[in-house]
Design a protein that fits this description.
The protein has 441 residues and is α+β, with helices and mostly antiparallel strands. It has 9 helices and 21 strands.
């Protein structure tokens, strides 16, 4: 393979036509391609645009449901190869007076999940076992499931649910076990199921949002839940030298940097992220109880955190223990028992634990959002962590390098979504980065 520079790429796209023949799509007939992954998405996705010509006749040859094979690589990366299914074909815009048609793709398992239904009771079964059974039995997948911190056993019934919809219910109900090799202490409810080019992943949000403490001076963290030791650093607001270059590797220099959300307290209050109250009604006993969940003390310490935090804030602490959201929920533990004796309360449906916890964990994890564009880097995947070293926009030229770094915005981030775009002979990667708090300044 030839050496590639920043923004260079190699790409091979093959599509099976209606007659079962595999076509290689190349040259000016392929007018653009975007490949996407996300930690909240159970499937990889790809959109590509083809220019239909009299010798190609793509709109006649390629139908919905056809198979797609995609292989690509950028600088310093191995080949990324995925198998997909076309689920939609749309007329796109014009390119150099030519009409480009857009073909939208998802993984074969996701496509099969659209027309498959599950009727099954999983009784006192671990979430990993449930998800593995669904993938192998109902969507015929041979892909491995990458897991981390294990979750407590669940009892849950699928009632004609679509496989991937049911997996989302499992994720919400999953509660980390007391201890694990990767974690310390009992974490908070809330897992996510997603797919990358490497396969499927079932991970605790605590683990995804946790990191090592040795990220350097610009990436402090107090997380008890550890992450990868090797994390790449990317640089924001790098000042060019006199010759237009910079001291940093050009593949690690962020081209565009945009803050999407940054500690929106109004949104936290609206969603009940800091404190909420849930009223539970059991129709079997006609009992109504209320539970208050407050994000402080052990509840907060048990979570994974990508940043060290900003310490105490008297303007905020005054309302931390006041529930800003009230929810109600009817739950029925008897649905899992076929006997005359009363079901053991909270043995199966642990709704009083997971409902408030997973809501807070999910909302808090997206408290800070940053979007970056960098030269194409196909080694980055959803669920990876990176470190941003953000330089202040206006700095004294005589200041030392460490004094020019914005310590509050720098640090660990989790890649929530990643899109690799191949267009006009250039590869670019866009990442949506998230974490739950800023670093101390």
């Amino acid at each position: 393979m030839k050496a590639l520079g920043a923004g260079d790429y190699e790409l091979i796209l093959k599509v099976t036509d209606k007659d079962g023949e595999e076509m290689l799509i190349s040259g000016d007939k392929l007018s653009g391609l975007v490949y996407r992954e996300g930690i909240q998405c159970p499937t990889i996705e790809c959109d590509f645009a083809l220019v239909d010509t009299s010798d190609a006749n793509y709109m006649e040859k390629i139908l919905v449901g056809e198979k797609v094979s995609l292989t690509f690589r950028t600088k310093e990366s191995a080949d990324v190869t995925v198998k997909l299914v076309i689920y939609s074909i749309m007329a796109g815009g014009r390119e150099n007076d030519k009409v480009a048609n857009i073909f939208r793709c998802m993984s074969d398992e996701a496509f099969r999940s659209l027309y498959t239904r599950i009727e099954k009771l999983y009784k006192e079964t671990t979430p990993t076992e449930i998800i593995t059974d669904i993938l192998t039995t109902f969507v015929a997948s041979s892909k491995e499931v990458d897991t981390g911190i294990e979750a407590e056993p669940l009892t849950i019934a699928a009632m004609r649910d679509k496989p991937f919809d049911f997996i989302q219910s499992v994720c919400k109900r999953s509660i980390p076990s007391e201890t694990s090799q990767k974690g310390a202490g009992k974490g908070t409810a809330g897992f996510t199921f997603y797919e990358t080019s490497a396969g499927f992943h079932f991970k605790s949000m605590d683990e995804l949002l946790g990191a090592e403490s040795d990220g350097g001076a610009y990436a402090p963290t107090t997380s008890k839940i550890k992450g990868e030791k090797e994390v790449e650093t990317y640089y924001v607001n790098v000042a060019p030298n006199a010759d237009g270059t910079s001291d940093e590797d050009e593949t690690r220099v962020v081209q565009n940097y945009s803050i999407k959300d940054n500690n929106d307290l109004e949104d936290q209050l609206y969603r009940g992220t800091q404190a909420n109250l849930v009223g539970f009604f059991d129709p079997n006993s006609l009992r109504y109880t209320e539970e208050i969940y407050v994000l402080k003390g052990e509840n907060f310490d048990a979570m994974g955190h990508l940043a060290k935090g900003t310490g105490e804030n008297p303007n905020i602490d005054a309302w931390r223990e006041t529930p800003s959201r009230v929810m109600t929920k009817v739950f029925n533990n008897e649905m899992y028992e076929l006997k005359s004796e009363r079901a053991e309360e909270e043995k199966y449906d642990k709704i009083k634990q997971y409902l408030a916890q997973q809501l807070v964990r999910n909302n808090l994890g997206k408290n800070q959002k940053v979007e970056i564009n960098i030269p194409g880097n196909s080694t980055l995947h959803a669920g990876d962590k990176i470190i941003l070293q953000v330089y202040k926009s206006v700095s004294n030229v005589d200041s030392s390098k460490k004094d020019r770094v914005d310590k509050k915005m720098s640090g660990y981030y989790l890649i929530s979504k990643v899109a690799h775009k191949f267009d006009s002979g250039m590869a670019t990667t866009t990442c949506l980065l998230i974490r739950d708090q800023n670093n101390e300044t």
